Amino acid sequence: MTASSFPVSSEASNYDEVSMQQSMLFSDCLKDLKNLRTQLYSAAEYFELSYSNDDQKQIVVETLQDYAVKALVNTVDHLGSITYKVNDLLDAKVDEVSRTELRISCIEQRLRTCQEYMDREGLSQQSLIINTPKFHKRYILPAGETTNGPDGAKLKYGCSLDDEDDWRQFKNAIRATIRDTPPASNNVQRNRGRSPSPSPRPPPQRSGTFHFTSTTTKKELDKRTESPNRFPLVRSGSLASRPVTPKGSRPTTPNPIWPSTPSFAGPGRQFPSEPRKSASMRLHAGRKNSQEVEQQHPHPGKGKHLLKALLSRRKSRKDEMLYTYLDEY
Amino acid sequence: MARAGGITNAVNVGIAVQADWENREFISHISLNVRRLFDFLLQFESTTKSKLANLNEKLDLLERRLEMLEVQVATVTANPSLFTN
Q1: Are B65 and A108 an interchain contact pair (Cβ–Cβ within 8 Å)?
Q2: Chain A closest-CA separation from residue B2 CA (Å)
Q3: Which of A121, A170, A268, A300 has the most CB atoms within 10 Å of its CB?
Q4: Which residues of chain A does B82 touch, with a Cβ-Cβ cutoff of 8 Å?
């Protein structure tokens, strides 16, 4: 038996002993009451006989009176003690019942709480409401956006390699329009390969710019070519390659329309003397000459002049490219 | 002589009557106290009966509630899956 349980058991034993003593006293009182009745009956019989047989009746009466008083007082005492004990016992039982009722109420309340919890859990399990996680708007990225992480890694939200390719192509196209790189990539080579071939149908915008540039003076054109951030410089790079086609790198055959006209040879000879002339002017002139050549000589036949003119223009174009490249950087 | 004998008899009768009245008074006192005791016992019986009836009612109620709790606990212990979920 542990030390903690010992006082409880001693209290319980004391409680049992006290209750046993009380019950013993109660039973003794009840027995005394029962005996008192028999004693009273026997005393009454004794006094009746003695009163009838004895001569000294007065003494018997007085003795009987004293006995009756004492018997009555004794009976009242007995009844008083028994009634008190009965009342005490009843009150104790009522208190015990009240405590038991309180404990049962507590157990019922616990059970009700458990039942309510079970009902609530059952409802939450049975209900089809899905609690979606809620985020703030600033933490939500729309689909298809990419964010660069702190270590340079890409946090992917629908990003694909096609976007990178597109972006690279776009950058290359911009570079190709801004400057003409000497060791050109495939795109630039493609552009360069396309550009020298004089298309019979030039775009209307370019024709518009050509008209505009044709109205400008020569000084203005020279100024524009010197400034690296102007459009004429850009065009000078891209358009300088148009009239001149390199011998080896040109994939397509040169248009045989170009060299046959004497008017075309005029501007072709102009390039070495004026290496820094505006490309738009030259292009306009070349394009104009080519159109004239096309109109005048629809069938090409004289390739030697054309080849010489192209070679001379190629040299001039290389010099121009070097100058523009140095101007840019 | 006869006249003196008559007076003594009257005195004896008077003493006997007085004694009888005293005895009657005593008996009336005793009977009165016994009746009071009887009334007390009747009152005690009634109060004890009412208390016992109240206690019996409470015990019946407690017995029913305990039976209800026993049934609920038995139901819960018979279906332990209700608490495991």
Answers
A1: yes
A2: 28
A3: A268
A4: 118
A66, A74, A97, A99, best to mutate vs chain B, most B CBs in 10 Å? A97
Q: Tell if the pTM clears 0.90, that is, is over it.
A: no
Residue A130's alpha-carbon distances to A81, A120, A140, A281, in angstroms, are 73, 16, 20, 71
CA end-to-end distance (rounded Å), chain A: 99
Contact A90 B34 (CB under 8 A): no
The position carrying tokens 């009342």 is A87
- Per DSSP, the three-state class of A148 is strand
Q: Tens digits of per-residue pLDDT, A217-229?
A: 555 445 454 444 4
| Model confidence pLDDT, tens digit, residues A150-175 | 444 444 444 444 556 667 777 777 77
Distance CA B9, CA B29 (A): 30
In A94-158, the DSSP E strands lie at 147-148, 154-155
The encoded tokens of residue A83 equal 């009634």
Pick from A267, A265, A259, A271: nearest CA to A285:
A267
Cβ neighbours of B40 in A, within 8 Å: 79, 83
Within the 18-77 window of chain B, which residues sit less than 8 Å (CB to CB) from chain A?
Answer: 19, 23, 26, 30, 33-34, 37, 40-41, 44, 47-48, 51-52, 54-55, 58-59, 61-62, 65-66, 69, 72
Q: HSE (CB half, 13 Å, CA atoms) of A113? A: 6
For A89, other C-beta atoms within 10 Å of its C-beta total 16
Say if residues A172 and A187 touch (Cβ distance below 8 Å): yes
Task: Name the residue of chain B whose CA is nearest to A101's CA.
Answer: B62
**Cβ contacts from A onto B, under 8 A:** 56
- A positions 101-140 inside 8 Å of B (CB): 101, 104, 107-108, 111, 118, 121, 125
HEC per residue, B7-70: HHHHHHHHHHHHHHHHHHHHHHHHHHHHHHHHHHHHHHHHHHHHHHHHHHHHHHHHHHHHHHHH
- State the pLDDT at residue B21: 92
Sign of dihedral through CA atoms A192, A194, A199, A201? Answer: negative
